[in-house]
């Protein structure tokens, strides 16, 4: 599979609710110590589903390499 | 993704409402929804309750699929001051509810009303609470009001913004994340000390 050029990034104000976990088709998200969501950059394909559902609106889809 | 048993806990949330509306004394069951997440965060150091087991979060997520505008919420909603302020306000109102329970325990008359959004007293005279002590009933009325208020706010912000917008400022979510942050802070200090 071709490597996606995009990647999800989680902002500082994540509330660790876990809404994003449920929609990620790649299982690329986990909640670290109940504090914040963390994206596995190797697994993320930048589809943006997590960003659309995030109730805190803290996920942005960025180009790989740009501030990873 | 294969569904697990805990993906159906939204049914527990719905059942709570059906039972509570049939008999207000079932409101007491909601105490579980308060203690379980706190215990899980304190013992496990995680938000697994929010991430996996919370029926309310699941229900908002499900209803939101059809009913939510899915618009990004205003930024202030996720700010520390708003979340902290709302938690503080919620706790003060919770304290007042406990105080009126105590007053009834000390002999004040039972008030058969459910307070919605801290302002509106809904008459609940039809409830049959004869079989328990008046303070037990008073707590049920007060607690059902707390649950109803948070549900109404949850539904409102679900429609206006994203399905689980309530989770951004839910006092339980703020508290469990706070506990996890405290625990993490301690762990970092311990590791730093060793290193
Ligand atoms: S949905 Fe948003 S706020 Fe919730 S855990 Fe994921 S990134 Fe954090
Ligand atoms: S962008 Fe898509 S693949 Fe990447 S974490 Fe979000 S939902 Fe998962
Ligand atoms: S933030 Fe509140 S409503 Fe949302 S999942 Fe956690 S406990 Fe449930």
Structure commentary:
The complex is a heterodimer of chains A (about 70) and B (about 200). With about 70 residues, chain A is an alpha+beta fold. Chain A has a single domain (about 5-65), classed as 2-Layer Sandwich (Alpha-Beta Plaits), CATH 3.30.70. Chain A has 2 helices and 4 strands. In chain A, strands 1-4 form a two-stranded antiparallel ribbon. In chain A, strands 2-3 form a two-stranded antiparallel sheet. The radius of gyration of chain A is 11 Å and the shape is globular. The model of chain A has no long low-confidence stretch (mean pLDDT about 90). Chain B has 8 helices and 2 strands; from the N terminus they run H-H-H-H-H-E-E-H-H-H. In chain B, helix 2 runs parallel beside helix 8 (about 170-195), helix 5 (about 80-105) runs antiparallel to helix 6 (about 135-160) and helix 5 packs across helix 8. Chain B is globular, with a radius of gyration of 18 Å. The N and C termini of chain B lie far apart (about 40 Å). Chain B is mainly alpha-helical and about 200 residues long. Chain B has helices at about 10-20, 30-45, 50-55, 55-65, 80-105, 135-160, 165-170, 170-195; strands at about 115, 120-125. The longest helix of chain B is centred in the C-terminal third of the chain and has 27 residues, at about 135-160. Chain B has a two-stranded antiparallel sheet with strand order 1-2. Chain B has one domain. In chain B, a hairpin with a 3-residue loop joins strand 1 (about 115) and strand 2 (about 120-125). The chains are: A alpha+beta (about 70), B mainly alpha (about 200). The interface between A and B is medium-sized, with 19 and 36 residues. The complex binds iron/sulfur cluster (SF4) (3 copies). One iron/sulfur cluster binds next to helix 4, helix 7 and helix 8 of chain B. One iron/sulfur cluster binds near residues 54, 167, 172 and 173 of chain B.
């Amino acid at each position: 599979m071709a490597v996606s050029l995009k990647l999800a990034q989680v902002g500082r104000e994540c509330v660790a609710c876990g809404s994003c976990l449920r929609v990620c088709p790649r299982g690329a998200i986990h909640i670290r110590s109940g504090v914040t969501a963390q994206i596995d950059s190797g697994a993320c394909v930048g589809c943006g589903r997590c960003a659309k559902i995030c109730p805190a609106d803290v996920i942005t889809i960025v180009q790989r390499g740009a501030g990873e | 993704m294969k569904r697990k048993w805990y993906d159906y806990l939204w049914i527990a949330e719905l059942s709570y409402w059906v039972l509570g509306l049939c008999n207000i004394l079932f409101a007491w069951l909601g105490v579980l929804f308060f203690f379980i997440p706190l215990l899980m965060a304190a013992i496990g150091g995680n938000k697994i309750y929010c991430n996996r087991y919370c029926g309310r979060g699941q229900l908002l997520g499900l209803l939101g699929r059809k009913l939510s505008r899915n618009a990004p919420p205003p930024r202030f909603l996720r700010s520390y001051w708003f979340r902290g302020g709302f938690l503080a306000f919620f706790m003060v109102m919770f304290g007042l509810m406990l105080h009126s329970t105590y007053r009834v325990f000390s002999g004040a008359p039972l008030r058969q009303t459910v307070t919605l959004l801290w302002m509106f007293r809904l008459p609940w005279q039809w409830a049959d609470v004869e079989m328990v002590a008046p303070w037990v009933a008073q707590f049920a009325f007060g607690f059902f009001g707390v649950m109803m208020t948070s549900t109404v706010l949850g539904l409102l912000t679900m429609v206006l913004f994203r399905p689980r917008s309530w989770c951004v400022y839910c006092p339980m979510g703020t508290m469990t994340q706070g506990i996890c942050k405290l625990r993490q802070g301690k762990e970092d200090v311990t590791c730093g000390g060793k290193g």
